[in-house]
Amino acid sequence: xxxxxxxxxxxxxxxxxxxxxxxxxLPLLVVSVASYTGHLNLxxxxxxxxxxxxxxxxxVAAVVEIVAYYIPGVDNALDIVAxxxxxxxxxxxxxxVLADLPPLVKWSTAIIAGGGAxxxxxxxxxxxxxxxxxxxxGLGNSVVASGELAGSALxxxxxxxLPLLxxxxxxxxxxxxxxxxxxxxxxxxSKEL
Length: 193
Fold this sequence. Notes:
Blueprint: H1 3-22, H2 25-36, H3 52-68, H4 74-97, H5 103-136, H6 141-161, H7 163-185
Helix pairs in contact: 1-2, 1-4, 1-5, 1-6, 1-7, 2-3, 2-6, 4-5, 5-6, 5-7, 6-7
């Protein structure tokens, strides 16, 4: 594998993993369809992601997940459940696209880069949804859900077809997420009388 191919594979994996942080099953569906149609080569140990049963399973799971995020109360509960699942799915989807690497390198990269990207994205969106719930009583959460859905779909498709652009968007999102988190978590000094 050349250095350029390796860079594209890592960019693809990180882009897909970050998309998993927005919606767990939609990026897996995109990977599954892209592999099934011959547009994406997967690692030999994760070939099953590109099978018709996987496409069907991820399609059903993606629709259920998308709809569930529009139900008040369920969306916040899903953030709790989705966090560990996103870490795992981000790791798996990254490992799936890192073909032709030694297992130690592939899985180490997948855990650190893939799991990390998915965890950061999931954490940022969960924080945003919690603030939306607090400020709007949950009425603004559908806007957050729509943004997450659009982000997941766009990032997944870009990662498959333009992985370096997807990686740039992930870096930009991370920069904004860190700034947003700092602003939310910054304590304001209290005035004493």
